[in-house]
Amino acid sequence: MGEPLPFGLIADEYDRRRPAPPEDLVDDLERLGGSTLDVGCGTGKAAVALIERGLTVLGLEPDERMAAVARSHGVPVEIGAFESWDDGGRRFDLLTFADSWHWVDPVGGVTRSAELLRPGGMVARFWNAHTVDPDVIETFDALYRRHAPEIPRVWEPGDGALIRLVRTADGEPFGQSGNFAPVQTHMYRSETVRTADDWVATVATTSDHLRLGDRLGPLLTELHAAIEGLGGALRVRRSTILALSRRL
Length: 248
Description:
This protein has helices at 11-17, 23-32, 45-52, 64-72, 106-116, 134-147, 158-167, 196-203, 207-210, 216-229, and strands at residues 36-39, 57-61, 77-79, 92-98, 117-131, 184-195, 233-246. The protein has 248 residues and is an alpha/beta fold. It has a domain at 7-129 and 156-190 and 238-246: Vaccinia Virus protein VP39 (Rossmann fold, 3-Layer(aba) Sandwich). Strand 4, helix 5 and strand 5 form a beta-alpha-beta unit.
C-alpha cells in the first residue's frame, strides 16, 4: 500500500494507453453477475467491460479527473476512498479491484468488503504482469540499472510473481478472515505487439515510473531508442491473475 499518486494529471493518457481486462476474465466476472462496485475504477476500463456485458456497475474513484473520464464512457461514478466512502446502506453482489487493491489498507479493506457484500457475494481482485523476449530484457535491464534501479524487473515477473503477490500479507488478507471462504485464483494469458511509441507512453502512466520525476524523461528517451534498435516493436505477453473471495 502507498499514497495514491495524482493519476488525474494524466487521466486522458492513462485511458488511452491502459488495456482493458482480458475478455475471458470478463466472461468469468459476467457469470458472477449481480450489482457491482468497481473500486478504484480509474477511467473505467473494467467497469465499461462489465457494463457492456449487462452488469449494473457503480464506480468508486478518489480522483475527480479520472472519474470524469469514466463518466464520459457511461460509467456512474461516486468520489471517495473505499475505507471511508458513505455507502448509504447499499450492498453489492460483486466488488472488483482492477489493479487497485494495493491502494487499499488490507486489514480495513477486508472488513469494509465484508460490510458491503451480501452473503455469498464475491470480491474479485486482479493484477497484470507483462513479459518480453530475452534480448529485450537484457537491453531493458541495462537502462533501468542506469536510470531507475529501484524499479523492479516489471517486464519479466512471470506467473510466479503474480501468485506470490496474491499470497502476501497485503495481497492475500482474505484468507485470514473468518468472513470469507478460501481464495480461488485463475490465470489468463494474452499476447500483443507494442510499438516503441505505445510501450513508452504506457509505462509512463504507471506509478513506479511516475515517481521518477526528472529521471523519467531520459529513461523514456533511451527506452524508445532501444526498442527502435530492436526492430521498432515488442512482442508482449500479458498474464493476469484473478483472486476470488466469497463472502460467507
